[in-house]
Specification:
Length: 224
Amino acid sequence: MAGKVSKKAKVVKPVAGKKSVSKKTVKSVKKTNVVKISSKKSRIAFAVITVALLFALVFGIISFFPCYKREKFAIVAKNGNEKVILKLEIADTDEARLNGLMNREVLNKNTGMLFDFVEPNYYSMWMKNTLIPLDMIFFNENGKVIKTASDRVPMNEDLINPCSIEFENKIKSSKGKAVDVDSFFEKCETKYLKPKNLVRYVIEVPAGTVKASKIRVGDILLKK
């Protein structure tokens, strides 16, 4: 019986140095590369955002707690006798004056802050967010004491200015008698709006400093 003759299948030998890669493998490699690139970009973006946030945090802290230069001053009597030497931080910008001594828990003896308003005017202070009792000393442009305010109460938001201080004294001396508030402040503000009585500087020091050093209206502030 004649048998069937089958044709032998040709064996295809791979070319030396080359490998046969399926379409699925190529797609998988491309996908892996895309994922790697994406991951690298994400890390870079994360690093940039982190640096930006750290910079913003540092800038915010610096802004909230501005750095003050410190200088020595003396308050002397009219006859030239030195009453006290103070080491004061200088607040001569809007930001520094706004922050002032807020949130401080300690203020050492004969230290404090000098607020320089640059342009003399009728300025007011307050004790908002101030944790320690203070004395305030108001000076005109020539460095002459025009008013003192002792033992200011922490956290109190009442305005403190030459006329509010005089009003406090008026109430104490009136011994319960009625005081015409409008008339009082009209006369008082007229007095303190005169050029020689306009405020240029205010010093904040620990409560008790004014009394202990016997600081009075007419004393002079001198830079050491």
